[in-house]
Write a structure and sequence with these properties.
78% of the residues lie in helices and 2% in strands. By secondary structure, it is mainly alpha-helical. It is elongated and about 60 Å long.
């Protein structure tokens, strides 16, 4: 399921979605958390990205594992395989950051929605969620960079 699309490895296609959606989620989440005046303008886009970015990251991780298995089956070994495994580790960490970021962003959206169905929560909940969102957003940006850079180095580092 996560191997190919039209003869191309799915991983090399879907990583572009991760490189776009995760940083967008991070930036919008920080803006939503830090700028209460803009929340009504950012809520839908931030909420959609809070779902799409983790899903894209999941597909990238799964397709990357399938791609790695295919490369190992073709006889790849040595330093190139070590680089692939390093890239894979960064991708796994990124996924473990983006999922909680998406969940906390959705919680922050609910808590700050002003909807009468949302129970009254202590005043400290919103700032704590906001700080956690900002921290995870920063970590997600770092790991998008590390993952993407290590993947690019694996593919292009030796040929340039």
């Amino acid at each position: 399921m996560f191997e190919e699309v039209l003869g191309l490895p799915l991983h090399v296609l879907v990583v572009h979605a991760v490189v776009v959606f995760v940083p967008l989620l991070a930036v919008l989440a920080v803006a939503y958390a830090a700028l209460p005046r803009w929340r009504s303008r950012l809520d839908w886009a931030t909420g959609i990205l809070a779902v799409v970015a983790p899903v894209a990251t999941f597909v990238a991780v799964q397709s990357g594992e399938a791609f790695t298995d295919a490369l190992v089956a073709r006889g790849f070994q040595g330093p190139i395989l070590d680089q692939i495994f390093e890239h894979s580790r960064y991708g796994d960490i990124l996924f473990r950051i983006v999922v909680p970021l998406g969940i906390l962003v959705l919680l922050l959206l609910v808590v700050t929605s002003g909807n009468p169905r949302v129970p009254r929560l202590p005043a400290l909940v919103t700032p704590v969620l906001a700080v956690a969102v900002v921290a995870l957003a920063g970590a997600s940006l770092v790991y998008v960079y590390l993952t993407g850079h290590s993947g690019a180095e694996t593919v292009w580092g030796t040929t340039l």
